[in-house]
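Researcher: Let's try something more involved. This one mixes different molecule types, so please make sure each is placed in the same coordinate frame as the others.
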Amino acid sequence: MEPATGKIVPNETLLYLDGVSVSFDGFKALNNLSLYVTAGEMRAIIGPNGAGKTTMMDVITGKTRPDTGEVLFRGAIDLTQRDEADIARLGIGRKFQKPTVFEGHTVFENLELALKSPRGIFDTLFAKLKGEQAARIAETLQIIGLAADQGRPAGALSHGQKQWLEIGMLLIQEPDLLLVDEPVAGMTDAETERTAELLRHIAQTRSVVVVEHDMEFVRALGVRVTVLHEGSVLSEGSLDKVQNDQKVIEVYLGR
Amino acid sequence: MEDAPRRTPLFGIPIDGGGWIFLAVVIAVTIAVPVLNLATEPGSAFHVPTYLVPLLGKYLCYALLAVAVDLVWGYCGILSLGHGAFFALGGYAMGMYLMREIGPRGVYGNANLPDFMVFLNWKELPWFWYGFDIFPFAMLMVLLVPGVLALVFGWLAFRSRVTGVYLSIITQALTFALMLAFFRNNMGFGGNNGLTDFKDILGFNLQSDETRAALFIASGIALALGYLVCRYIVTSKLGRVVAAIRDAESRTRFLGYRVEHYKLFVFVVSAVLAGIAGALYVPQVGIINPSEFSPANSIEIVVWVALGGRGTLFGAALGAVLVNYGKSYFTGAFPDLWLFILGGLFIFVTLFMPKGVVGSIREGLAGGRGLISRKRDEAPSPGAFAGSPGE
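Model: All components are placed in one shared frame. Result:
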């Protein structure tokens, strides 16, 4: 249970990043990044373009392997040794910046594919949808407000509806940790408000990390904020606290 | 659901309207052709001439091959330009059995060695020919050889995340390499000439009308069963995962599906079906040689599938029959023009009928009924021609 640094990861820490660095052709996308997310916490990550937000998501979900540093899940699971599918099965869900749903599948089928269930080829080859699973899908359709659209191809949905469907897919996957990349980019105000509500609902039962540019949205979430800059943590605390932090003001307004 | 597609199940497998018509036609042809060949007099208006039976049987084998390619291309977005290799390997496995069946009736009268080995002055049977005199063993090899090759090749390719055009190119290289290898005499498969002069199968004379009718029926049954197997796969949850991989591979991965396992599964199933098609083809045409591995053959299969309609299974079968009927006709009437016609056809279909004949008919029907929302699982995303977009 004890990581190489000798520090003891507290039990309630769900996600633990320590000294993570990633560089692409000499460019340091992440520079000695350390971050902890506790179980049940919702955290907002903000930062200017190129601050390393998406790279951080890639490292956590197994898409990118860090050059150095530790990434631990539930205290003991080393995420740097696992691939995307493995990490998803461990209980880490990811929402992309651009809504990515299966456009040729119906809304119902999208949720069916995401539904927490065995993922092996022979499990799916002979899979029959059970009553409780259908009920779970129906419940999720209610939460994301797409019950009336369940038979439509996901490609026919509006931009906002696709975002909600993707959030619904993550919900039904039942992850312990949800990573959400810019969920309200390109949304109307009403849609943004509804999305904030959805995320707060989700955060009642699991940890959520939201990457966002939109300050109003971050304020609406009302959670602890981490500011990234040039691949490391610049400031951390409530939104008011970081907005008054001199270093943050310099990075955002200076230059 | 507002537009639940009308699908009546068969053995628990949901079959769509076009699928039912397809199965009915295959069964009708499988019964009618042998009956009209054997039970009517040559002068009768209903008589099917004997030369037509193996020709139509060949079309059935091609149709099964097309269905196999559609499974990987239409549903999983893997554009294989090397499926002719699996077809040819199935054919060679059958050909080896047929060679051993000749026994002492060959030109050199050697009971233990096929003619070409005697000609090459070989003294004993190479080890990899052992067992091919036993029919069940040869049939097992028809399934295993293409299946294991697809498993190993696919495992290496999919694990390294080779996709799109790069994957197509290495499948093409695979079949080209096999062609060069099989051309060599010392490979032990008859070199340039391949395997031919077959006499009988399971003791039945291959030249007799009855044997030909039986092979025709076997081909029809194999096509119908192959279709049903593929249809079961594509309508199962696994089929929806596979289509999800085609449309958004990394999303599928982040949902926890091990994409390479799914690709490998459909690739191996497809290769085995192609092998079966090849094994049924060889006794009906009477020869198998390395030209079956030629890259152009594999590309032609893709043309059949594109023309008939990707992602429909029966459309692929229809495309195979249409193109091969055209080939039989044009290579007779205008032998020099055939390749130009084939190339022109491919360009025409790509530009004007991206969903093939079946897709165009469906759109016509849907437009007529004012139902445009029925495209769903049958229609691959338009950009998926050379594999999954967005990667």
